[in-house]
Amino acid sequence: MNDVPISVLLGVLLLLIIMSGFFSSSETSMMSLNRYRLRHLAKGKNKGAMRSAKLLEKPDRLIGTILTGNNLVNFAAASLATIIIQRLFPDNPDLAVILNTIVFTFIILIFAELTPKTVAAIMPEKIAFPVSGLLLALQWALHPAVWFVNVIANGLLKIFRVDVANATPDNLSTEELRTIVHEAGSMIPKRHQHMLLSILDLEKMTVSDIMVPRSEVFGIDIENPTEDIRAQLRSTQHTRIPVYKGELNHVVGLLHTRNISRFLSSGELLKEDIVDTCREPYFIPESTPLHIQLFNFQKNKRRIALVVDEYGDVEGICTLEDILEEIVGEFTTDVAAATSPDVHPQEDGSFVVDGSAYVRDVNKAMKWTLPTDGPKTISGLIVERMEHIPESPVCLVIDSYRIEILDIRDNTIKSARFTLVPRPASRS
Fold first, then answer.
1. Could you report the per-residue pLDDT of 180-202, keeping only the tens digit for each?
2. How far apart are CA 345 and CA 338, in angstroms?
3. Which of 25, 29, 252, 324 has the fewest CB neighbours in a 10 Å radius?
4. Separation CA 299–CA 49 (nearest Å)
5. CB 116 within 8 A of CB 22
6. CATH class assigned to 335-420
7. Per-residue pLDDT for 49 more than 60?
């Protein structure tokens, strides 16, 4: 070794440092790859992605190959650097050792570790895909050494009850998926983001959150005079109508107006015709999650259901359109209805809201964030916060909303004025 020129030794040392940087960047780039994007590219027959996916199928072998090669290179480089320093300072071996330790450490840290790993972390695909072929070749060439090392390492891991063969798959949870959709930015249009997030929200909602309440259900009382029933059917805008006797709890069936149009046109509509045309009613519990009810509608080939409580009393109706509107937004073509008929803007910037309005509907129409984990109506929300029914108009604050009660009748709040309260600026 003493006969080899220093220039040759320096050239070999440089080559070893480059090889060390190669192994460091390979490790970081392979581990930094987006596994879902990688699968997508691999399905598209991207050769680099396919090779990388194959390597990542057995991460213990991949890491074993990289670390085996990297350590061999680093040990060889350290030994060679020692020889070079000793030849440069033959009369002072202690100084040579100190210089070798300091200088070589900084060289390895900067040129073989920090810089390559930083570049690989920033652009993992540009590094991982080209080097994947060489890593596969090294994995085959170093197989005996890698196998021996992995046997010992996996044996140690089993002592700590870590099973490499049955590693937990990197599946996404609902909240993680929600975060990915939020962070997609311009890659997914805002409207599509809203739809995807709405689909995820279906699991948190039940049919009671979106149903038309019993007091607002349009139905046909079969005990009414025939002429009144005819007038109701001619003027209604609904296509599916519940038919009942006396009250909504005594439902006869669900009527599709298309099936009786010929009787209406001829003027020969009878109560018997209505009852015979009705379809058997479809009842669902009020606690049914929306995503389940959506599939139930599909399975049972239904578009409308009567929502009942735990005692079997009808609480309202839920339609397929109601669930779809939670995903894609309102279907209505009425401009007035699209701006929420329950919210009335005032000249001073405040809003007068009907007490019977649903909190979710108000939030959706006004982009507000009123709490939805409690009462469903504005009146119920105010009463819950006050813990009593006010006898006279009062004011309260819920989150960032100042609420002034305007009208109280029949033990319910009929209307209230909402004013947005600016949040105090945070102190730096």
1. 887 777 778 888 888 888 888 88
2. 14
3. 324
4. 40
5. yes
6. alpha beta
7. yes
pLDDT of residue 335: 41
Q: How far apart are CA 154 and CA 84, in angstroms?
A: 38
State pLDDT tens for residues 213-240: 888 899 999 999 988 888 888 888 888 9
Residue with structure tokens 């009020």? 286
Residue 332: how many CB atoms within 10 A of its CB?
A: 11
Return the CATH number of 205-328, one of 3.40.50.720, 3.10.580.10, 2.60.320.10, 3.30.390.50: 3.10.580.10
Where along the chain do the CATH 3.30.465.10 domains lie?
A: 335-420
Q: CB of 288 within 8 A of CB of 206? A: yes
Looking up tokens 């970081």 gives: 28
List phi, psi (to 5°) of 202.
-60, -30
| Two structure tokens written together for 89 | 């300072």
User: Dihedral (C-alpha) 333, 338, 342, 345: value to the nearest 10 degrees?
Assistant: -130
